[in-house]
């Protein structure tokens, strides 16, 4: 079994000079993330309204504790989704603006 020497190894292929992602990809990502943020906001709003109008009330303290914990997890997760999708949408929008601006010095 022979080992390859430095003279027999192939050089790495050159990398393309153009970026892989263009402005259209950033626009599509920002719009889809914004759509998901709006949908998540609707779900979060409906959860808050539902749990406000129908608060959990059970006679057993353990069941009441589990119901309140589940309510907190559901509402918190829905607002976390709103925040995450919104932040991703803003970031992709800023990246889109950055790619559309002319580069100085290059």
TrEMBL record:
Segments of skewed composition (Polar residues)? 1-10
Question: What segment(s) does the record annotate as region Disordered?
Answer: 1-21
- Segments spanning the bilayer are 24-44, 64-97
Transmembrane helix as a keyword of this entry, yes or no, is yes
Q: Which domain of life is it from?
A: Bacteria
Name assigned to this protein? DUF3082 domain-containing protein
Q: Which UniProt keywords apply?
A: Membrane, Transmembrane, Transmembrane helix
**InterPro entries, sorted:** DUF3082
């Amino acid at each position: 079994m022979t080992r390859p020497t430095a003279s027999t190894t192939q050089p790495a292929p050159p990398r393309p000079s153009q970026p892989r992602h263009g402005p259209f990809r950033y626009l599509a990502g920002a719009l889809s993330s914004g759509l998901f943020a709006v949908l998540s906001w609707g779900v979060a709003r409906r959860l808050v309204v539902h749990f406000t109008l129908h608060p959990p009330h059970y006679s057993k303290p353990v069941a009441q504790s589990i119901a309140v914990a589940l309510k907190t997890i559901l509402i918190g997760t829905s607002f976390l989704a709103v925040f995450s999708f919104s932040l991703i949408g803003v970031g992709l929008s800023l990246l889109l603006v950055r790619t559309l601006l002319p580069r100085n010095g290059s």
